[in-house]
Amino acid sequence: MIDNLPRVNDKVFGVTSTVTAGNCLRSSRLKVARKLSNPRIAKIHFHLIRHWFGTMEYHKHPDMHHVRRLLGHKSILNTQMYVNMEKAFFPESSEDFTVKVASNVEEACKLVEVGFEYVTDFDGKKLFRKRK
Predict the structure, then answer these.
(1) N or C: at which end does the chain have fewer Cβ atoms within 10 angstroms?
(2) What integer is the mean pLDDT of 115-126?
(3) How many Å apart are CA 27 and CA 9, to the nearest integer?
(4) Mean pLDDT of the 22-36 span
């Protein structure tokens, strides 16, 4: 839904104040909700986008401490909500990964381009992983 919003300077809200961004989101979501005849779109707000981001970040990197630091939570208990949401949205996801090894920069770039994430170095090689 966010991809359908009008963009300013390659960003949905451009470089602007929080108040202006809020007004832009409000008017854009109402226009899209009317155009698509979907009143649920009108209920999207900034905090919902934060929840979506935290959930997707945990899905990509299943590390609660990483998500906690990223979102600025003081307590890991606040971050637990994103773990629960991720499990509800992606019940089929598992902790199984496809692992690839890169020997040079070109191989590493190709792996990153198709969604692999860097894990560590081992015997002079770079290890990458991606969820199955």
Answers:
(1) C
(2) 88
(3) 18
(4) 87
Angular region, 96: left φ>0, alpha ψ -120 to 50, beta rest: beta
Q: Is the dihedral of CA 104, 105, 109, 112 positive or negative?
A: positive
pLDDT of residue 108: 92
Three-state DSSP class for 129?
A: strand
Contact call for residues 22 and 46 (beta carbons, < 8 A) = yes
pLDDT digits (tens, 9 = 90+) for 73-91: 998 888 888 888 888 887 7
Q: Are 82 and 60 in contact, with CB atoms under 8 Å apart?
A: no
Which token pair is 105?
């920069």
End-to-end CA distance of the chain: 26
pTM: predicted TM-score of the whole model, two decimal places: 0.52
For residue 100 the two structure tokens come to 């690839």
